[in-house]
Amino acid sequence: MIEVTMKNFEADVIAASMTQPILIDFWAPWCGPCKSLGPVLEQLEEAYAGLFTLVKINSDDEQQLAQAFGIRSIPTCILMMGGKPVDGFTGAQSAAQVRTLLDKHLPSQGELIAEAEVDEAQELLQAGDLHAALAKLADALAADPANDDTRYDYIRLLIELGGLEEAEAALAPKLAEIPRKLRFEALAQWLSAINFIAGSAYADWSIAQFDEKIGQNKRDFDTRFAKARLLMAAGEWTAAMDELLEIIMRDKKWQDEAPRKAFVAILELLTPAKPKAAAQISGKTAGGIEVLGKAVVQQDPQAEMVSAYRRKLSMMLN
Question: Which tens digit of pLDDT belongs to each residue from 252-310?
């Protein structure tokens, strides 16, 4: 439990909530319900063993903070995650009631195990041990099957390592959902390109052979699309998009817009992962208090490339 004032609010609430949930207890020494709720919250903080941090703010002494959060009566508790309020309650609550609120937002044991496995997988990926990383992702997915981020990373690495049948099996539940999520549709497009090329007469074609045939007929979309899928299968993403744009430029609706769908899938596969919550600080609390200086945002080269190709597609379609 931490006592918070304006001096340590930024560090112990805003910044801290980027990596761990923070439960703020607005209280005052004269408040009877506050005195009954306080011990309940402290016992829960101990019982949850580090899954959240309890901070207490004296609303009489820290009126600026109380006003910023719109506190009208006490006790009021607010759960902060990722620098923002996500839930809360007013008035004294039983331990069971507070647990209900916490359990809506805090990770389960399976999710914690999965998170640890994913962290190890990332370290193994950075070290270049792809097969060990794949095993860790498989363990993480088994511990937390509902985690779409882990499933996506697992399927993607399976495809990269050639485990196509396993990838198709892991992907199937997501493709059965309505609507499908774009990133899983993108993986399906990639798998389809790999399987198409492997089972077609184009499997042994060189790029020069494709270009020679296309040179004879610029509107030979079957050959162009096959070339694009070969490039997709090989991970030559920008070259594949350039070929797809050639088709879209000439016929936007060809084959039920298959080139556009493949292009969008590549963009999704190339889009950098979203940064963790710590990188998404807005600079203000929900109540408008300025808590952080302005951050300089720099776009990485891959994100810039993806943006450029999105613009190219938009120009072709409009």
Answer: 999 999 999 999 999 999 998 776 544 344 444 333 333 344 444 456 889 999 999 99
pLDDT of residue 290: 38
Looking at the chain, the whole-number percentage of residues with pLDDT higher than 90 is 81
Final residue in a domain of this structure, among 105, 135, 160: 105
> Containing domain of residue 14, as a range?
2-105
Residue 157's pLDDT is 96
Within-domain flag for 168: yes
- Judged by DSSP in three states, 90 sits in strand
Please identify which of the residues 13, 24, 31, 193 carries the catalytic annotation: 31
Question: Residue 84 domain-assigned?
Answer: yes
- Check if 31 is active-site: yes
Cβ contacts of residue 285 below 8 Å, gap of 6+?
14, 68, 69, 83, 291
CA distance readout (Å), 256 to 60, 100, 247, 306: 65, 49, 12, 24
The CATH number covering residue 51 comes to 3.40.30.10
Active-site residue, from 34, 137, 171, 231: 34
Distances (CA, A) of 24 to 1, 53, 84, 131, 227: 10, 9, 12, 43, 58
